[in-house]
Amino acid sequence: MHVHWHRRDLRIGDNRALSMGDPVLPVFVFDEAVLSHAAPPRVSFMLSALESLRESYRERGGDLLVLRGDPREEIPRIAAAADADRVVWNRDYSGLAKERDADVRDALSDAGIEQRAFHDALLHTPGSITTNQDDYYSVYTYFWKKWRDRAKDAPFDAPDEIVVPDEVTEEGIEIPTLADLDFEDPEAEIPPAGTEAARDLLSAFCEDDVYRYDEARDYPARESTSRLSPHLKFGTVGIREAWEATERAKNDAESEDAAESVEEFQGQLAWREFYAHVLDDTPSVVAENYKDYQYDIAWRDDPDGVGAWKDGETGYPIVDAGMRQLREEAWVHNRVRMIIASFLTKDLLVDWREGYDWYRRKLVDHDTANDNGGWQWAASTGTDAQPYFRIFNPSTQGERFDPDAEYIKRFVPELADVDPETVHEWTELDPDERRELAPDYPDPIVDHSERREMAITMFENARG
User: Fold this and answer.
1) Residue 164 and residue 388: Cα distance in Å, rounded?
2) 303 partner at 20 to 30 Å CA-CA among 61, 185, 238, 261?
3) Region for residue 330 given its phi and psi (left: phi exceeds 0; alpha: psi -120 to 50; beta: otherwise)
4) What is the mean pLDDT of each run of 10 residues along the chain (464 residues)?
């Protein structure tokens, strides 16, 4: 028998480590060190996913052993109590996870218990796609070409025999509530979790929207994205299963354009892995700029501006719609995420770390690698980043990607009766006209043209 230590792989099927033989004792540990970096939306989703996972095990005649404590102590203790032959788990790539896993490995070795960790969350493991000089890629395009052409594993089979020996049955706890873990209820409505919910999303997307993904994905009102991000974050669906579904969709495509659209979505899976490879190679990106500048970037300290940004009260309709969607759904459309991030870093001239931290607290799908990569891209400090002199104009972005202001009006009801063309001209209107049209919606807190010039100067000074 071996112990499988669940972390970001809250599923039974297509789970590499879990498939490594029978019987298996599945274990999940609530780790206070990890929970200290968590937030209500993600913890709420995780708890629901754990309930679903436990039910899946019970349907197979087994159970999930849930513990709370330090994995460095709990995992060796349970393995010894169950007389397990070994402990297996799937790797995570953050600095915190690597440090924790190394300590658990040492503790198991000291106890004379075999252990093995597997690469499972990615189709291609960090370090497997490199330049001709064996360096990790810092430019996505070159990474994508190799990533796309590499053979990919098929999904792994679920184990046949799941056991929780009598010796450890009393050790387990019920899955705690948010309150038990000292978290408040999230203000957002959290989507359904678990493998069944993930597979429903994947199936529906690959039957329809994936064929329009290329043309529709940048338009937030069209609701044409997969919404799989929290499921990939917590591993309620396997990445090989997701890839296989997209390959079937591509093979079933009725036109070349439809097949190319599927490949465009597959490119988003590659972006996810690109940023995970960067994090594995350079863990310091979580707190530091990836890209070096000769001098420090002179970010502004602007608590009032940041407060308006968080509250969706900047007077820039597409920015405010995105920030309010974040509060209501714990999720934001990807194009809008880029606009939001650009506004904070290039219009408010505020350090990207402020935005990254807010996303960490508010997103249900917060992923260290992806969010860090996205924020540093927008801030012109990351890998393959947006050049500092190419700055999103939030008004023209809104006009281009939400032409009828449908998305904006959904989340900014103060503008519900304003003509879409006028919504997109909001920052150019006379203050009295704004008051007459939407008295409860704020004036713009900054002038984009002025801040654009300030941003360029700020980066040019940093370059030296």
Assistant:
1) 55
2) 185
3) left
4) 96 96 95 95 98 96 96 96 96 91 96 96 96 95 95 95 90 96 97 98 98 96 96 98 98 97 97 96 95 96 98 98 98 97 98 98 97 97 91 97 98 98 97 96 98 98 95
Rounded distance, CA 154 to CA 240, Å? 6
Q: Are 57 and 158 in contact (CB under 8 A)?
A: no
The identity of residue 266, as a single letter, is Q
Distance (Å, rounded) from C-alpha 433 to C-alpha 414?
Answer: 14
Round to whole Å and give the CA distance between 324 and 331: 10
DSSP codes joined into one string, 215-250? HHTT-GGG--S---HHHHHHTSS-HHHHHHHHHHHH
Q: Which residues pair with 116 in a beta bridge?
A: 88
Structure tokens at 20: 């490594």
In this structure, what is the dihedral angle of CA atoms 455, 456, 457, 458, given to the nearest 10 degrees?
Answer: 50
What is the Cα–Cα distance from 273 to 289, expressed in whole angstroms?
19
Contact 5, 88 (CB under 8 A): yes
Q: Which two tokens stand for residue 438?
A: 């939407």
- 390 to each of 342, 380, 434, how far by Cα in Å? 10, 9, 29
Q: Left, alpha or beta for 384 (phi > 0: left; psi -120 to 50: alpha)?
A: left
Map residue 352 onto helix, strand or coil.
helix
Cβ-based neighbours of 278, under 8 Å, separated by 6 or more: 136, 138, 285, 290, 369, 373, 383
